[in-house]
Specification:
By secondary structure, the protein is of the alpha/beta class. The protein is about 50% helix and about 15% strand. It contains six helices and five strands. Strands 2-1-3-4-5 form a five-stranded parallel β-sheet, sandwiched between helices. Helix 1 packs parallel to helix 5, helix 2 crosses helix 3 and helix 5 packs across helix 6. It is globular and about 60 Å long. The termini are far apart. Bound molecules: 5-O-phosphono-beta-D-ribofuranose. 5-O-phosphono-beta-D-ribofuranose (RP5) binds next to loops. The site of 5-O-phosphono-beta-D-ribofuranose has 10 residues, from loops.
């Protein structure tokens, strides 16, 4: 029996895959059913339209959209659905991802895209933000998120002890 995905990790190109797999990895770690797709606002516009239009009725609750350069992808999807869309700007060889960041983050008022940092940190945070959204109505997931934060805190504390020479 296949479980229907709650989060979609979509990307404009297969060249975004390595970065966007970081988001999928975290969703897997939290046990969140998800799917990964390559869909492009300009190369496969019909597919993008169908995906955005059907997202809610397919049971998706969050869309994570990664794109680079003139990264209109997240905004296009957000225009087609009212479920939350999180945009992840990809690093680019030419402008370092500033192009992607501005194209994703600067949505005119009315159609929001929650935009994360450029690249891998952004992909990870997009997954964690998705978990936080789902955790609003899922106490088990909320507990896992608190556990994740506790581990981060512990790791930072240990790093502090290491640089102070108190542990190896
Ligand atoms: C965007 O253009 C994609 O999201 C990708 O980040 C960028 C470059 O795509 P490729 O030319 O590598 O396929 O649509």
């Amino acid at each position: 029996v296949s479980i229907s995905p709650k989060v979609a990790v979509v990307m404009g190109s297969e060249s975004d895959r390595e970065v966007m797999e970081e988001a999928a990895r975290i969703l897997t770690e939290f046990g969140v059913p998800h799917e990964m797709r390559v869909i492009s606002a300009h190369r496969t516009p019909e597919k993008a339209h169908k995906f955005g239009t059907n997202a809610a009725e397919r049971g998706l609750q969050v869309i994570i959209a990664g794109a680079g350069k003139a990264a209109h992808f997240a905004g296009v999807l957000a225009s087609l659905t009212t479920i939350p869309v999180i945009g992840v700007p990809m690093t680019t060889p030419d402008l370092g991802g500033l192009d992607s960041l501005l194209s994703t983050v600067q949505m005119p008022a009315g159609i929001p895209v929650a935009t994360t940092a450029i690249g891998t940190a952004g992909a990870r945070n997009a997954a964690l933000l998705s978990v936080a959204i789902l955790a609003l109505s899922d106490e088990e997931l909320a507990a896992k998120l608190r556990g994740y934060r506790a581990r981060l805190r512990e790791q930072a504390h240990e790093a502090d002890l290491r640089v102070r020479g108190e542990i190896q």
